[in-house]
Fold this sequence. Notes:
Blueprint: E1 2-4, E2 7-9, H1 22-28, E3 38-43, H2 54-70, E4 79-82, H3 93-103, E5 108-111, H4 115-127, E6 131-134, E7 151-153, H5 158-171, E8 176-182, H6 185-201, E9 204-211, H7 219-227, E10 233-236, H8 241-250, E11 260-262, E12 284-288, H9 294-303, H10 313-330, H11 335-345, E13 352-354, H12 357-365, E14 370-374, E15 377-378, E16 389-399, E17 402-412
Parallel strand pairs: 3-4, 3-5, 5-6, 6-7, 8-9, 8-10, 10-11, 11-12, 13-14
Antiparallel strand pairs: 1-2, 12-16, 14-15, 16-17
Amino acid sequence: MVAIGAASLVLAGCGNNDTATEEEVATEEVVAAVEPNCAIGTLLPQTGNLAFLGPPEFAGVDLAVKQINEAGGINGEEIVHLVGDSGDTSTDIASQTTDSHLANNVMAIVGAASSGVSLTVIDKITGANVVHFSPANTSPALTEYEDNGFYFRTAPPDTFQGAVVGGLVFDDGYDSAAILALDDAYGIGLADNFEKNFVEAGGTVTEKLIYNPQAAEFSAEVTAVKGSSPKAVVLIGFEETTKILQEMIKQGVGPDKLPVYLVDGNLSSAAYADLPEGIMVGVKGTLPGTATPDAVKEALLSVNPDLEDFSYAPESWDAVNLIALAAAAGGSCDGATVAANLAAVSGANGGEKCTDYASCKKLLDEGKAIDYEGLSGPVNFNEFGDPSVATMGIYEYTANDKYEPIDFITGDVPKP
Length: 416
């Protein structure tokens, strides 16, 4: 047993998240017609352009499920995890996975990682009175989405990340910047929020290009950025960021020549290992949440020894705990009950602080209101299902395959 603050994560081997072909993964790991009393389905990336985020997210879910069941489950019922792939927006995998989960009467679907993917299935999920809970969606488009009160997330919307990145670039001494952002709800939303905050701080955006992430190459985009003569470049993307950096290096504007800033979608300890040695040193990036403690990393590695990133594992762990606590508080494993109780167990109305399922469930059994504060920090859902308070980590690369935290900024999440 590994103690993590007041919480303890029980180490055990869980589900296998090995890569499979995209169309196979959509359904092969979703058990058909099991209809458990307390089931959640995952809609997380095993394939697609965010597949590198899948392993830590699945690990976070599996740790939470194991801990909840060893603490007695949800009012005596075991919580069951039905594994499912989200793919990306270039496939129909998310819709297939969602259909399978809904057929199995899940109370909640955890995912997607991609805001764009979530937007393709949110109507189907929430329309079925099932909770749609993402550990990683950050698009502001989801804040005021008509979800009938069934959509929640533990990651803050990019109104918060945009403010942090805008301030970071300007405070680092760069009063002009170019933006390269992928063409989806996440990329456009974060680009707009960075631009707003950077300009308000006194900066100038020399070029703002929205690109197709499926493009074979990015020479035209990099040429345009280079021609605008920025003092820094903000890259908002997913796995295609590696190709963009390769093109920047080729054109003589790589990170060793022009300051580069990454964001949560492309902050990776594996994606840039094959770039010229040391080229990433000094590159900065942002990621929602607090630092992942070493004890948590050890616990996650015990679930999946091949983990190379830990991004959004804490948010995934918190998502499952919150879902289970909401079901326990309401006395039923159905979506409507979970949705009705999530804000309360998150501490939106106050309560006694607790940091894991077992300690929070004990307080609920004593008739007390709770304020869950998990591995990702305080949540305290607002009326939109967004966390009302959030922490953003600022990281800096010390090698191509390693980044370290240099600062954490906590604040209120701006509302529309």
